[in-house]
């Protein structure tokens, strides 16, 4: 499956780390399928959505999984400058279907080195997962074709997957949009992946 680097070009200022509990990955203390209201107030969710309303406007159903960016939260941002979440409303709950965190680099070679360390770590934590990668290709956030990325995917079970990628942005994209080379860890539900691929 070549779903290469689906949304990796959109994450601005992230700092990366990860923990593994109950055979799941936590980013900012949250896991997919958590109720976002267990971590944020309705006001925080509303504030975090500002500026992200059109994030997926190119999709058929762009509002199915709204995006929330979290910064300056005393718990969630303890290790991360920013965490991005996509959720789905369900009977008054906001069920998390995607969580992203990452780290920026001035030297892309260090990004690739850290990516391999993280891939090895996830491989050890989830030895029965199906691993795909490395897959290398152009980043969809740069129509010039001069930005590239490499990613690994781990299919944990029928519910979710983990994606680890390095994004090497062109000098022009960095100069104009301030996008820096980055390592990105994302945990997605399969429902989210299917939505973003269609």
Structure summarized in a few sentences:
This protein has 4 helices and 9 strands, in the order ββαβββαβββαβα. By secondary structure, the protein is α+β, with helices and mostly antiparallel strands.
What can you tell me about this protein's structure?
The chain has 198 residues and is an alpha+beta fold. The chain has one domain. 21% of the residues lie in helices and 34% in strands. It is built from 4 helices and 9 strands. The strands form 2 sheets. It has a 7-stranded antiparallel sheet with strand order 3-4-5-9-8-7-6. A two-stranded antiparallel sheet has the order 1-2. A hairpin with a 2-residue loop joins β4 and β5 (93-105). It is globular and about 45 Å long. The model is unreliable at 1-22 (pLDDT under 50).
Q: What would the keywords be for this entry?
A:
21% helix; 4 helices; single chain; two-stranded antiparallel sheet; globular; 198 residues; disordered N terminus; alpha+beta; seven-stranded antiparallel β-sheet
């Amino acid at each position: 499956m070549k779903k290469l680097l689906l949304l990796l070009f959109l994450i601005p200022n992230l700092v990366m780390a990860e923990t593994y509990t109950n055979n799941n990955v936590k980013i900012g203390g949250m896991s997919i399928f958590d109720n976002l209201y267990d971590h944020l107030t309705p006001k925080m969710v509303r504030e975090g959505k500002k500026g992200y309303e059109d994030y997926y406007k190119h999709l058929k159903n762009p509002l199915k999984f709204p995006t929330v960016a979290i910064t300056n939260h005393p718990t969630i941002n303890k290790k991360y400058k920013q965490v991005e979440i996509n959720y789905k409303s369900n009977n008054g709950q906001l069920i998390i279907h995607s969580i992203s965190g990452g780290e920026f680099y001035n030297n892309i070679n260090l990004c690739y080195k850290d990516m391999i360390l993280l891939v090895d770590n996830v491989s050890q934590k989830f030895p029965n997962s199906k691993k795909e990668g490395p897959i290398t290709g152009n980043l969809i956030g740069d129509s010039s074709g001069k930005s590239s990325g490499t990613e690994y995917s781990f299919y944990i079970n029928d519910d979710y997957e983990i994606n680890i990628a390095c994004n090497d942005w062109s000098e022009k994209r960095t100069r104009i949009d301030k996008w820096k080379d980055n390592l990105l860890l994302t945990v997605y539900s399969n429902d989210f992946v299917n939505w973003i691929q269609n």
